[in-house]
Design brief:
- This protein is an all-alpha fold.
- Helices cover 59% and strands 0% of the residues.
- Helix 6 crosses helix 7.
Length: 125
């Protein structure tokens, strides 16, 4: 997802996260999958479940509010706090990420998509 996209509503966000999670090996349709993602991310399982069910409302980012109150840029404050690395920029989207964004989630199809993109990029050189 790029920063130029409009925010998703809770249901759309749930579908997006569920699709991306499936591509990353987490099946959010099962308790085991939600539990594993919660454990691996440090998020409460109830939040993972709420996201998957399309009823999660993200809490306001306290860092953004703090930055505003201090007259700082949000990203600058995150860098000062050591949350973002200095000079960090959004990473270039991988072909795997693009496949998942398009709804291609089966590991076999994702691998085929990645191979096709690699072949096309090599042909452009």
């Amino acid at each position: 997802m790029t920063s130029s996209r409009q925010p998703l509503n809770a249901v759309e966000f749930g579908r997006y996260v569920t699709r991306r999670a499936r591509g990353a090996g987490y099946d959010l349709t099962t308790t085991a999958g939600r539990t594993k993602l919660a454990k691996d991310t440090g998020m409460p399982e109830r939040d993972v479940t709420a996201i998957a069910e399309g009823r999660f409302k993200a809490p306001a980012d306290p860092w953004k509010t703090l930055a505003e109150k201090l007259g700082e840029q949000h990203k600058d404050l995150l860098r000062i706090a050591g949350i973002l690395k200095p000079g960090s920029r959004p990473t270039k989207k991988t072909s795997r990420d693009t496949a998942l964004d398009l709804g291609i989630t089966s590991p076999k199809n994702v691998a085929i998509f990645e191979a096709l993109v690699t072949a096309l990029l090599n042909a452009e050189k």
